[in-house]
Write a structure and sequence with these properties.
- It is an enzyme of class 2 (transferase).
- One of its GO terms (molecular function) is hydroxymethylpyrimidine kinase activity.
- It is a single chain.
- The protein has about 250 residues and is of the alpha/beta class.
- The protein is about 40% helix and about 20% strand.
- The longest helix is centred in the C-terminal third of the chain and has 17 residues.
- The protein is globular, with a radius of gyration of 17 Å.
Length: about 250
């Protein structure tokens, strides 16, 4: 079995999330992490900015890895349609490789039109990925519906599955209960709510770490639902040890 795992994700200049969380999580799972960088970030006079890598350069990175045997692929921030298209092409050429898609859509730097275009592009990934891991706002954008209740959460998960996603986990956080973090796992047949008490502390990078952990567990042949359960515990442990810059300081 291959111990190689790939992240296609962005650089967080403060090292809490993005590729830093991905590679740290891979290492914690004793996997050899590879990386194709999708974007850079910087704190400027205009605020926190996402700077896309040229799509041609993204393609060159991915072409360089075409012959590597990956046990899993994790997709993080794809900053625009052009970069997403390159990632999609790579995934389509690795149909036998498990893929975890963290469909990052909510960036304050993006305009509504950009979010809409990227939403449509990300949906194209669904038939080729093993599981998607949106948060509530992303799930609303992807499913094109409001989520105000746990039943709405179920309806959104079903819509996303019907769009082609094999498995869906929607991260509910503290939206429905200020004492519990409630996530929903859907396998196409059964809905399973995963609950844990809310932790204080810095949770920057929690979503990246969660998706990277799921990919790592799947790469090590864990069933998908068990990978999700273990990853929820993994992130909770990471948050409890986080420093000022994010959850990946545990390791």
């Amino acid at each position: 079995m291959s111990s190689h795992i790939l992240a296609i994700s962005g650089n967080d200049i403060f090292s809490g999330g993005g590729l830093h969380a991905d590679l740290t999580t891979f290492a914690a799972n004793k996997l050899h992490g590879f990386l194709a960088v999708s974007c850079l970030t910087a704190l400027t006079s205009n605020g926190f900015e996402v700077i896309p890598i040229d799509a041609t350069v993204v393609k060159q990175q991915l072409d360089s890895l075409v012959d590597v045997d990956f046990a899993a692929i994790k997709l993080g921030l794809l900053p625009n349609v052009e970069v997403a298209e390159q990632a999609l092409h790579f995934v389509q050429n690795h149909k036998d490789t498990p893929v975890v898609l963290d469909p990052v859509l909510v960036c304050k730097e993006k305009h509504d039109l950009e979010v809409s275009s990227l939403r449509d592009e990300l949906v194209k990934f669904f038939p080729y990925v093993t599981i998607i891991t949106p948060n509530l706002v992303e799930a609303q954008l992807l499913a094109q519906m409001e989520i105000k209740t746990l039943d709405d959460m179920k309806a959104a998960a079903k819509k996303l599955h019907d769009l082609g996603a094999g498995y869906v986990v929607i991260k509910g956080g503290s939206r429905f209960d200020d004492k519990e973090a409630i996530d929903l796992f859907y396998d196409g047949d059964d809905f399973t709510f995963l609950r844990a008490s809310i932790l204080g502390g810095n949770n920057i990078g929690a979503g990246c770490t969660f998706a990277s952990s799921i990919a790592s567990k799947i790469a090590k042949s864990e069933p998908v639902e068990e990978a999700v359960r273990q990853s929820k515990d993994f992130v909770r442990d990471a948050i409890s040890h986080a420093d000022d810059y994010g959850v990946n300081q545990l390791f």
